[in-house]
Amino acid sequence: MNKYQRQTILPQVGINGQQKLAEARVLIVGAGGLGCALLPYLAAAGIGNLGIVDGDQVEESNLHRQILYTPKNIGEHKVEAAKTFLKAQQPELHCTAYTEYLSGENALDLFKEYDIIIDATDRIEVRYLINDAAVLTNKPVVYGSIHRFEGQVSVFNYENGPTYRCLFPKAVEVPSCEEAGVLGTSVGLIGMLQAAEVLKIILETGNVLSGELLIYNTLTATQDRFKFKKNENIQITQESFNAAHKNNYSPKVSFSIDLLVNGILVDVRTKEEQPRIANASVLEIPLQELNRKVQDFESSKDYYFFCQSGARALQAVRLLKEHKHINAKALTEGAAQLQKLITTASV
């Protein structure tokens, strides 16, 4: 117990609290900036069981804010690189790396294995998936999000409290970090606030941010807190979960040169977004125009959608699936990475 002496002397922790931390099981959805910020502190605090789920691989553009990774990790699965870091820090930690994306197919089974879920993602559709799976499995969700210099933190579904859908009934698309930009310090701060909420929940101490949204602006060093109530009219059932998430399950695929030869890539960004990709196998159809052009897609062909971050690509895939077009997938890579890959393949 020498390792934890400085925290066990706190009356809110003590030996009993340290035992609670050792027995806790926490699942982190997303091993990007927020995940990298909170994971080492949860492990160092003595949480005994951590799960990390993310299908992404380390890219060079991640390194300025995803501090668990080094240039040597580029191309590796983020969750595997994160696990290696955490095990070196905390050898007794039981850490499970899931090299897959959270989906309607796996969310419920994964959530059942853990006590607390951490939303460390940057995709709107995944936030609703996390919320609905957490409600069905009765798990609290520690939420964090970043937009440029501003971050948000809250705790949903805590002791039957308000959920993400109570605060955000409808999805509103916002630019991702890739599109809007972000400083690593902003991500680090919000991730640390999420970690603090996790510890309070496990230790049953302090005021958990249930029914409250904390908004912190790192540029002005100001913060606000807003209260929100549970909407009793929102009901999540297995049927609604299946309709919203299982039937729309759209796994991503990675780019290969074969896709240019045998498939069609569809850019759903606006015409103003850069970089533009000039290739005969790339169609440009902004997402807002896709609905009226869906009849132009041929069922005999394979279509691969992309944007900047992947959020709009997944929306496009779901739209085509609603029209019974089964040969539609979203690409893992964003436009900037695709441009490099296509240029290299053409040389």
UniProtKB/TrEMBL annotation:
Keyword vocabulary terms for this entry: ATP-binding, Nucleotide-binding, Transferase
UniProt-listed InterPro entries: Rhodanese-like_dom, Rhodanese-like_dom_sf, ThiF/MoeB/HesA, ThiF_NAD_FAD-bd, Ubiquitin-activating_enz
SUPFAM superfamilies referenced in this protein's UniProt entry, alphabetically: Activating enzymes of the ubiquitin-like proteins (SSF69572), Rhodanese/Cell cycle control phosphatase (SSF52821)
GO molecular function, one term: ATP binding
PROSITE patterns noted in UniProt: RHODANESE_3
One GO location term (cellular component): cytoplasm
EC code(s) of this entry: 2.7.7.80
Catalysis performed (reactions): [molybdopterin-synthase sulfur-carrier protein]-C-terminal Gly-Gly + ATP + H(+) = [molybdopterin-synthase sulfur-carrier protein]-C-terminal Gly-Gly-AMP + diphosphate
Pfam families assigned to the protein according to its UniProt record, in alphabetical order: Rhodanese (PF00581), ThiF (PF00899)
Residue ranges of domain Rhodanese in the record: 259-347
CDD domains attached to this UniProt entry: RHOD, ThiF_MoeB_HesA_family
Annotated function: Catalyzes the adenylation by ATP of the carboxyl group of the C-terminal glycine of sulfur carrier protein MoaD.
Subunit details: Homodimer. Forms a stable heterotetrameric complex of 2 MoeB and 2 MoaD during adenylation of MoaD.
Similarity comment: family membership: Belongs to the HesA/MoeB/ThiF family.
Name of this protein: Molybdopterin-synthase adenylyltransferase
